[in-house]
Amino acid sequence: MKVLLVDMGSKHNMTGGQSRVVRMLYDGLRKRKIQTYYLGYETLYMDNRKKGIVLGRTGKALAARKSRLSEVNLVRAAYNLAYVSRMKGLGTHRNEILDRVGKIAPDIIISNAIADFPLISYFRKKGLPFKAVYIDHGSASTTARKYFSKEGIPLSMGTGMPSANLSRKRKHFFSFFDMNVALNDSHFHEISKLTGKVSIISNGANVKVYRDSVTENKIREEYGIKKNDFVVVYIGRLFERQKNVSVLIKAFKETREEDMKLLIIGDGPSMEMYKELAYDDTRIVFAGVMKDKELNSAYNIANLFVLPSNWEGFALTVLEAAAHSLPVILSKSAYVSDLNEDGKKTIPSFDEKNPYELAELIEKIYSSKEMQAELRKESLRISKRFTEKRMLDKYARMLDKLQ
C-alpha cells in the first residue's frame, strides 16, 4: 500500500496541530511498513524529506490574508475564482505536481485541510486512481460559520466555486471523499448529516515528559518568571477567529495577583493585536514559537493550561498539557464530550465570550490546592486514554479496509 499525505494548509502554518498530525501519520504509518509520502510545504515538523514533495512558499496569499479586505465576501469570491480554482501560488506548477504524484502512484491520498481539495480533485479528473480520505480538524464540520476567514475558503469549501449555499457545498465536499475522519463525536454527527462515509479517530499523543533545569531556568530568566509564580499558559496559533486568545488576555487582566504570569506561546496573524491588548499588563509575556525541548520545559514550569477557542477538532495541546499533569480548562466550544469520564464531565469549561467567567475560574483554581490536585489527576487519566498508538492503530485499520 502507498499512502500520500497532502497538507496544502501548511502554506500558512509552519506550526500547529494539523501539521503535527501529518508528522505523526508520516512516521507512524512508515513504522507499520506502509509506504508513506508527503505533499505540502515545509513546517517545523515536516522538512525536505526524501519521500516527500515539499513545495516553495510564494508569500503572496499569506500577505493577502492579513488585509481587512480579505474578510469581504465579494473579495473572497473573486479570490476563489481567480486564485483557488486555478491553483495559483502553489510554489510548483500543478502539472509538475501531477507528474510527480503519478510516479508515486498512491493507493490512498489523505487530505489534511480544506485547501487540499482543488488539487486532489484535479488529480482525480486527470485519471489518477486512488481512494481519498479527509481528516476534518473542525474547519468544515463546525457550524460556527461566522468565525471563518478566507483561510478556510468558506464560500467554496475548497472547491474554488463561490456559493451562498454552504450546506450544498459541504455535502459536495464530504461526499467527494471515500472516507471522512471526524476527530470528535460532535463533528462526527455533523458530517453524518451529509454523508455516511465517516468515522471517528480522535487525536492521540506520545509525549516524553522530562525535567531539564537548564532550559526551564532559561525560560524563567528570559520572561521574568519566578519559581513561586503561578503560570497560566496558552500554546497554539495566534489566529483570533478560531483561537480567541483575546478573551484569555482580557480575563487574565481581571486578576490582580502579582505572582501570576500569562505565558503565550505561538505565532500567527493576530500577534500584534494581542500585544496591543496586553501592553499595560507586564505579567503577560509572548514567547513566540518554541521547539519540542522548550515546549516540554514550558509545560513543566506552568501551573494551568487554558484553551479559549471558538472551535476545535481535538486539540493536541490539551493532550500535551495533560501528559504533563497540568490542570486544564477549556472554552465550551473547545470542550469535546469525548473527554468525559464514563459520561461525566470532568474538566472545567467557560463561555468563550465571557472573560469574567474565565477570570473567576482562573482565580478559583489559583486559590485551591485541592482543585489543582484533582485536575492533575484527571489530566493523567486523559493522557492514558488518548495515545498516539491508539490513534495510529485506528488509521491503519481504516486504510486496510479502504484498500
Please give a quick description of this structure.
With 403 residues, the chain is α/β, with parallel strands linked by helices. It is built from 16 helices and 13 strands. The protein has helices spanning 17-31, 60-65, 73-84, 94-104, 117-125, 166-176, 185-192, 213-223, 240-243, 245-254, 271-278, 292-301, 316-323, 355-367, 369-385, 388-402, and strands at 2-7, 35-41, 52-55, 108-111, 131-136, 179-182, 198-200, 230-235, 260-265, 284-288, 304-307, 328-331, 349-350.
What's the CATH first level of the largest domain?
A: Alpha Beta
Q: What characterizes the major β-sheet?
A: 7 strands, parallel
CATH-defined fold name of the largest domain:
Rossmann fold
The helix/strand class is: alpha/beta
Order of helices and strands: EHEEHHHEHEHEHEHEHHEHEHEHEEHHH
**What is the residue-averaged pLDDT?**
88
The structural domain count equals 2
Number of helices: 16
Q: Which stretches are low in confidence, meaning pLDDT under 50 for 5 or more residues running? A: 59-66, 145-154
Question: How many β strands by DSSP?
Answer: 13
The gross shape turns out to be: globular
